[in-house]
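#struct-pred

JT: dropping the chains for the assembly here, can someone run the whole complex?
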Amino acid sequence: MGNSFGHLFRITTYGESHGGGVGVVIDGCPPQLEISAAEIQFELDRRRPGQSKITTPRKETDTCEILSGVFEGKTLGTSISIFVPNKDTRPQDYSEMAVKYRPSHADATYDAKYGIRNWQGGGRSSARETIGRVAAGAIAKKILKQVANVDIVGYVKRIHDLEGIVDPHTITLEQVESNIVRCPDSECAQRMIEKIELIRREGDSIGGVVECVARNVPKGLGEPVFDKLEADLAKGVMSLPASKGFEIGSGFAGTLLTGSEHNDEFYLDDTGTVRTTTNRSGGIQGGITNGESIILRVAFKPTATIRKEQRTVTSTGEETILAAKGRHDPCVLPRAVPMVEAMVALVLCDHLLRHQGQCHTLKP
Amino acid sequence: MGNSFGHLFRITTYGESHGGGVGVVIDGCPPQLEISAAEIQFELDRRRPGQSKITTPRKETDTCEILSGVFEGKTLGTSISIFVPNKDTRPQDYSEMAVKYRPSHADATYDAKYGIRNWQGGGRSSARETIGRVAAGAIAKKILKQVANVDIVGYVKRIHDLEGIVDPHTITLEQVESNIVRCPDSECAQRMIEKIELIRREGDSIGGVVECVARNVPKGLGEPVFDKLEADLAKGVMSLPASKGFEIGSGFAGTLLTGSEHNDEFYLDDTGTVRTTTNRSGGIQGGITNGESIILRVAFKPTATIRKEQRTVTSTGEETILAAKGRHDPCVLPRAVPMVEAMVALVLCDHLLRHQGQCHTLKP
Amino acid sequence: MGNSFGHLFRITTYGESHGGGVGVVIDGCPPQLEISAAEIQFELDRRRPGQSKITTPRKETDTCEILSGVFEGKTLGTSISIFVPNKDTRPQDYSEMAVKYRPSHADATYDAKYGIRNWQGGGRSSARETIGRVAAGAIAKKILKQVANVDIVGYVKRIHDLEGIVDPHTITLEQVESNIVRCPDSECAQRMIEKIELIRREGDSIGGVVECVARNVPKGLGEPVFDKLEADLAKGVMSLPASKGFEIGSGFAGTLLTGSEHNDEFYLDDTGTVRTTTNRSGGIQGGITNGESIILRVAFKPTATIRKEQRTVTSTGEETILAAKGRHDPCVLPRAVPMVEAMVALVLCDHLLRHQGQCHTLKP
Amino acid sequence: MGNSFGHLFRITTYGESHGGGVGVVIDGCPPQLEISAAEIQFELDRRRPGQSKITTPRKETDTCEILSGVFEGKTLGTSISIFVPNKDTRPQDYSEMAVKYRPSHADATYDAKYGIRNWQGGGRSSARETIGRVAAGAIAKKILKQVANVDIVGYVKRIHDLEGIVDPHTITLEQVESNIVRCPDSECAQRMIEKIELIRREGDSIGGVVECVARNVPKGLGEPVFDKLEADLAKGVMSLPASKGFEIGSGFAGTLLTGSEHNDEFYLDDTGTVRTTTNRSGGIQGGITNGESIILRVAFKPTATIRKEQRTVTSTGEETILAAKGRHDPCVLPRAVPMVEAMVALVLCDHLLRHQGQCHTLKP
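RK: done, full complex below.
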């Protein structure tokens, strides 16, 4: 059941790096939403390989096709199927990895769990599986926008030790998309790009941190006690390939404050709305949104597949050396930005529908 | 549906701080497991209030009763119900909080979501709800122990800026329990205790980091792509009250390494088992356990409820000042240790059963 | 996971015939619903043993206690826990059944599945487990009543070969409750009662058919393609002890008509509402309610536990003879009526919330 | 969420009669199962339109493509995607039904629920959606066969008032497939075929009953209390288009027996296995399989879409007359046989994995 995510707005994905293609089925989408393949393609283009000199050179247009669930430009309320065929596959690049396990990759654990794996390009563990998430996320974003003008903006906050300065309250998609590393601090972005290119030339890789903000989120989303919004957000982004850490609001740094320093004091704004003077809660208190911006951060490790030589073992039980071939991102961060946004959108959309179901049936 | 957790090994909890009591129903527990109320009580005693001078003085023995699902000392395979009545309630302590929202607590968001809340002692948002998790976790731990000798040990890694030195590969429950703050670095523990007492006297609170290790975990647990083990672990611990961040293995610090520095190289040990020379993956690769120890960290913010005066608003729309009464932990960390362990055990046990179901039906 | 039912409005039950008691946790209940223990007790009293001379003489008041989720008479939106202790237990009556499997009962299959069973009074397979369903159903009924004035009325349609004449469009709860067999055809009811008493004296048992109608159900409930409303209703009632068959609308008899005879033609009523001239569909078309009354029937077999001698085997592998002791219903039908109503209410309430979530988020 | 079915072995379907195609995603399939497109195609061919003179003449080869989850002829353990494109679509045939609701079809209720529908060929309510079920069912059947030599055989038991004589204990697939109506009583089958042809010429339709047997089912499948096996079977088959009733074992007729007549007495067979002398339980007692054959029946109503004139209304609120065009089955029964088998297989396979997970983790 691990290939489904969400409850009322629920997605199920499939597909491997080098099979027929990858796709997603979306169940529970509200009916009569206007949606086009172009709107979905916009997000897929932000995720696709080969989009810039600092991503993998694999040439995929990732052109999506809506197979069901949309009629005359509108959602039907029944299950939506979106498919993206694989085009530029090179299984031969992976023949060495058919027997040699890549360190810190999923090769060995897939074999341990299933006793079989599609070794071509990582199979199901390839970041290519995130296409379905990003496609479904495009629809979730549109619903959130339409219902409450919700804005979800992700960006690269840090690459290795280079950290950008970004104001989550004002940052726009256009600013994020203004450079290929997706760090809207343009001066820092330039240094990030240079570092990634350097690392790539060395046959190595680096990681970093993506930050994501969701603004205008309605109050009341999230469910005690296990489906607290931050718990579902954590699960969503920690299921992305290469993620190693998650923070909401003040995160780990917040543990260095006392309660009196950390608490977000309440006040009433001009309209009489309850607001907080600070936002260390990151928009969520007691697992439920409070109307302030949701702010979260995700740590992504350096890409596991590198050209540099590493010691490893084979599936047949011999120690060996691997210098991985294939086409890989030297740094996943630029392409991880739309993935993080998608997961945030999926979580929020699911909870939006759930909240409507539970709390607006008796009092519409 | 937010009050259930897990799929095959599934728990559902209920109860408020000041209602009749709190409890848990466990569905899907393997039959014929020997279990006693005493074994569950052992874990509840580690969680209960009033256990030391640095926790809340609320006097609860948290004595559990097994209402169903166990017969002649063994599980029946049908649903297990465990109940703990509330004894030492003082609703009058909360009369001021019936109208004044505690900053960074759940008062305001519960009202926003539900239009109603049990203001006595935090209601459902009270950490008292974790009793059900810890009780069910005791059973999950026993299953894991019996099947694979799995050891789950949590401890306080840091209080505010005081960080202990602990070796996750050797640390034992006895060492953790050797002091009241549950940091097995005894010298550091002493300073932590002093700091917590100081903070309490000031009417303030502090936070910190719990680290947890799971040893001897079988290879193969976790499911691509959404139910990666780290994703479910993240959801589990981020659903605990006051948690603000999660890390697996190298976590955020791992983003400062290159791929060649970060990757865990493989080797074959004496028995021919595939092992890694380092463990920056934290025991999980591609979402699936690799047999190395699972190591994770959780950030807990300083307790929201403090005696110090804070600006806030009332539920009737007026700005005001609150100096919270009631009995609260100046620092949740010591009592959070068994909670983190319980969530880790619940996630592992659920995935153990799921793995057995999917991967050992054709090849038992 | 078999002890939970529903998705948004979800119940989890526990408890055996002879353990500490039985209960239910309700997750996802809308907040601010006024509900009292008395309203729940009303339904439990219709289900309880010992209510008349034609039911089991076990003396249980089945008095319920609300342990959580309700505050000052209103639901909180968080999980509701309702508990009913077992009082009048006689484990000694079952000592023979500890080794001898009752034919057509669950003794042998529980042993085969779990390798263990609580042989006292049937354990978890006892109809006593339906207390949780009926308690939760009382809340579901109230929500449905409040939102759309939905009326759910079940009644005994047939006992053995005695079939009553009942008009589902006008039948009332009062008429159903006017006699102890719950068949509102009073003349037929009298003969049913006599037959049950006769059968009881013979140490035998009989079965029959419960019919249930739900009126004023809003259009639009039910989800293609697996969660069609009739599919979820079928699952709900077929999970009741002793049920052997399910029909919706024309049911099996409808297969003897041609399409032109069977189809429900549409017309517009005075208010311009789309209605059907007949109702062979039983209120559901394409898995979705059409606004007409839902009408369904459930077959209940004769009670498995009888005093008459039967050939059977022991758990230790010997053929033997059993004449069952214990206190049992000679006919489950009168007490099955509130159980069927409860399952119908639970299904409708869950789908009401789901429909609200999916179809009223974009267009409230 | 209504487009998914099952828990551990879980399918999600999508597609409309006249969109790009229909398909299924299977999550949780055991790894290393040998499966080919041809094996799946075998079952799809039994379901496809145009297979004989008594089915709809729509020309679809229903050729399936495995898009993911299978590698070198074996399942990977990750999600399997199977797709069947729509080829022979004639939307123009349905232009009248774009405004006129077909009596007893899903047109009006889809509009009521979603405010939109794909009126071409019934959209999602078309029986074409069952392709995904049958494809997934082929895999489920293979697993059941491999693990326990389970045989699932469905057949037409009755068409209108013509009932065949069939022995469920010996009937084979070959016998069922020996004629186009799939009733293995060949003399009766001939009369059924004649009747269907007559009805078709009259522009009318008829229904009937499918019976299905599952032999060699292991003991222990099914979960108290809501996921009793008969409850999940009922849900599975009652979610099929046109189904109106369900029976397990003795069904409705069993209500005419007394307990002493109805109970299945136990005995020990030559191998010492606990068996029953009769099988009125239909292979399930207390919701759990007892090792005897599972026998169930499903009532299918006459096809709703008929050429004969019927009174109806338009979506714009006018009363009118409809004589439906399009290509439809005069009787769904022959093609319903593989659908019923598929649902039975899916339920059994899911419960097989669940049982393995819960009951064979501690005691493999």
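JT: nice. Chain B touches chain D through 27 residues (CB under 8 Å). DSSP finds eight helices and 18 strands in chain B.
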